[in-house]
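Design request, tokens follow.
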């Protein structure tokens, strides 16, 4: 035990003496939470709207007012011809063009039906789908007003089906509430993988690994001494992130903090096993950084953090089962937003425990101690 404590003390001293490592531990998480949480959102605002109004009627102006009343659309101008709308889309001055045909109001009165056209810039297919959904809601609201206006004499209003919606776990539909738990996982992942993967390989470059090899310590003592300081730093980062999530973004923590830290302790051990395995198989810090970058990118893209796993192809969904980040993202959202307990996350807990055992066993096996 004393030998492990000496190694742990050495690691702490190395961490806090290294001026380039301290910003990685404390500054990077702060920047991630302040920038990524606000940047990584599927909510679309300030959509540039160009209107081609060929009717110039009360109804056409009312429809445009419905668009202007929302927080999503910004009216950039009017035109009288279809070609003007096309030109605005091609120049990038408009994201969507609303084309109101001639006799729009007359057709509503005489035929009880009419058509309008939406031209949406679909270079970004996801954004185009959201813009189209926003427009559909606005037009439905406009249509409901017209139906009320045309109510039969003696009726207070047109009989309509009223839908009352209740959004569970995120009542305000705040995208930050959905993203913050995932960003917290990303925060812990990047810090632990980057620090751990450079750990042993740094000893190789400095030449101190030879002194450790001839010292009277066993492999498991060496590995435990190496991982414990970074395990505690990972937990500190998680606490720091949870405080910001609750205090700055007001993300609810419905479930137990004990459940989060239980899973996080196994998750950090898994990352350390991966990082130490990379570190023992690398010859230089640059090589370890490239391998670390590869794993970080692969893990993030298949974790369900930005893209729902259910939307991925079947082969990609299968790949995600081998991604430890996937399980932590699921658990953070389940515990923080839904109040899940240990029983509800038992499958993810078993999977991450298996990952931790396998990866740390590989790390111990791959470290070649030569006396």
């Amino acid at each position: 035990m004393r030998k492990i404590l000496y190694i742990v003390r050495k690691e702490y001293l190395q961490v806090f003496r290294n001026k380039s490592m301290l910003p990685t531990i404390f500054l990077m998480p702060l920047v991630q939470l302040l920038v990524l949480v606000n940047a990584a959102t599927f909510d679309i605002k300030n959509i540039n709207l160009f209107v081609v109004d060929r009717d110039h009627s009360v109804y056409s102006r009312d429809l445009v007012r419905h668009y202007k009343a929302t927080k999503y659309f910004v009216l950039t101008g009017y035109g009288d011809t279809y070609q003007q709308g096309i030109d605005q889309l091609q120049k990038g001055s408009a994201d969507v063009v609303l084309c109101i045909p001639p006799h729009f109001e007359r057709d509503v009165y005489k035929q009880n039906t009419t058509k309008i056209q939406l031209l949406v810039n679909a270079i970004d297919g996801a954004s185009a789908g959201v813009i189209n959904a926003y427009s559909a809601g606005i037009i439905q609201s406009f249509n409901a007003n017209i139906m009320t206006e045309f109510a039969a004499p003696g009726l207070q209003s047109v009989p309509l089906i009223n839908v009352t919606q209740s959004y569970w776990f995120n009542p305000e539909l705040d995208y930050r509430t959905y993203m913050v738990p995932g960003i917290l996982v990303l925060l812990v992942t990047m810090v632990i993988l980057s620090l751990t993967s450079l750990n042993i390989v740094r000893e190789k470059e400095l030449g101190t690994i030879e002194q450790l090899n001839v010292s009277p310590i066993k492999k498991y003592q060496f590995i435990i001494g190496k991982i414990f300081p970074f395990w505690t730093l990972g937990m500190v980062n998680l606490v720091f992130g949870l405080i910001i999530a609750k205090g700055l973004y007001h993300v609810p923590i419905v479930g137990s903090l004990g459940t989060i830290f239980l899973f996080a302790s196994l998750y950090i051990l898994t990352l350390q096993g991966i990082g130490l395995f990379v570190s023992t198989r690398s010859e230089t810090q640059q090589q370890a950084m490239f391998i670390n970058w590869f794993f970080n990118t692969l893990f993030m893209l298949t974790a369900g953090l930005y893209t729902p796993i259910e939307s991925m192809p079947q082969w990609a969904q299968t790949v995600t089962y081998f991604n430890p980040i996937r399980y932590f993202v699921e658990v953070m959202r389940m515990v923080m937003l839904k109040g899940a307990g240990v029983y509800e996350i038992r499958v993810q807990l078993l999977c991450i425990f298996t990952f931790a055992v396998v990866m740390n066993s590989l790390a111990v096996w791959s470290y070649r101690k030569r006396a």
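Comment from the thread starter after seeing the answer: thanks! The radius of gyration is 28 Å.
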